[in-house]
Design goal:
By secondary structure, the chain is an alpha/beta fold. It has a five-stranded parallel β-sheet. Strands 3, 4, 8, 9 and 10 form a five-stranded mixed β-sheet that branches. Helix 8 packs across helix 9. It is built from twelve helices and ten strands.
């Protein structure tokens, strides 16, 4: 079987890690990047320090122009959630009739953003779970969690393009799956990541600190229940023990773990506040579901977000 042609949009902690894994396994990967990340990829390739074993790919394909790549079999979209809508139209040169476009962002709206920019035919639902970050351009550190990727057609049918991408990922040593209900999987992650991001951004401490403080743990419990209530209002049926499973996942993370939104907030960068906490606040108003904890998180974090974006 020929190597899959895969474009990875973004070379940060997510795109850099999964793109490097696929390239290291022999797939035909091209990174779509810009600035210092693009320069580093072209000059040095990509290096990954991982709790599962370090590796490097000395020579990688990298460009800032999708037109030079042409049609590919799959596109992994790994930019920040707030960037998806803006970059979506630029991905059109990568698409053929059977190209699978898989978003790996946090949040619940990335597939919709891609559909608005590309149309519905190529877009799948997708998510990942990994604690990773950029040490310097072209150098990724995977610090915690056994990384997983889940994706699938938005109508939950099994498709040849999804199956082929699944095989490529598994051959690369990635724990990948096509779940029976991609919407349920997306919401299960949203229930997990949004309270973790918000509490980390507000408290500015790793999860190993706040999960052991009873008052803050109770805050997390209430925040998780708010997102579960939103899922129910959207008609998404989560596991009956979704709260317990989420808290167990928090307890299983390495003590030093932080969410990417938290790290961006702490370093004064634009963050995924709108895609995570903001999405909860917006949906709560639309669905008439009370989310007082997230409303406070959002109001508390909004001034710094606007400052990071140069709006104030």
């Amino acid at each position: 079987m020929r190597a899959m042609r895969i474009a990875v949009v973004g070379a940060g902690g997510v795109g850099g890690y999964f793109g490097a894994k696929l390239a290291h396994a022999g797939e035909d990967v091209t990174f779509i990047a810009r600035g210092t990340a693009l320069d580093a990829l072209r000059r040095d390739g990509i290096r990954v320090d991982s709790i599962l074993g370090d590796f490097a790919v000395d020579r990688v394909n990298a460009t800032d122009d999708p037109w030079t790549v042409g049609r590919v079999d799959a596109v992994l979209v790994a930019v920040k959630a707030w960037q998806v809508a803006a970059i979506a139209p630029s991905l059109k040169p990568l698409l053929g009739p059977e190209t699978a476009v898989v978003p790996l962002e946090n949040g619940i709206e990335a597939a919709d953003d891609l559909i608005r920019g590309l149309g519905p035919d190529n877009v799948l639902g997708g998510l990942c779970a990994i604690v990773s970050f950029v040490v310097e351009p072209g150098h990724i550190r995977h610090a915690a969690l056994d990384p997983i990727v889940a994706f699938g057609e938005l109508d939950n049918r099994r498709s040849a393009r999804a199956e082929r991408l699944l095989l490529a990922m598994r051959n690369a040593g990635i724990n990948a799956d096509i779940p029976p209900d991609i919407s349920r999987s997306l919401w299960t992650k949203f229930v997990f990541i949004t309270p973790m991001s918000a509490i980390g951004a507000v408290t500015r401490v790793p999860i190993g600190v706040w999960r052991n403080i009873p008052e803050t743990r109770e805050l997390a419990t209430k925040a998780v229940l708010e997102v579960i209530a939103l899922a129910d209002a959207q008609g998404v049926t989560l596991a009956p023990d979704a709260l317990e499973l989420t808290m167990k996942r928090y307890d299983g993370l390495a003590p030093e773990s932080t969410a990417s939104m938290q790290r961006d907030v702490m370093e004064g960068r634009p963050s995924e506040l709108e895609a995570q906490v903001g999405a909860v606040v917006r949906m709560s108003a639309e669905l008439n579901v009370a989310t007082p904890i997230h409303n406070v998180f959002y109001a508390a974090l909004l001034p710094q977000e606007r400052k990071a974006r140069g709006e104030i």
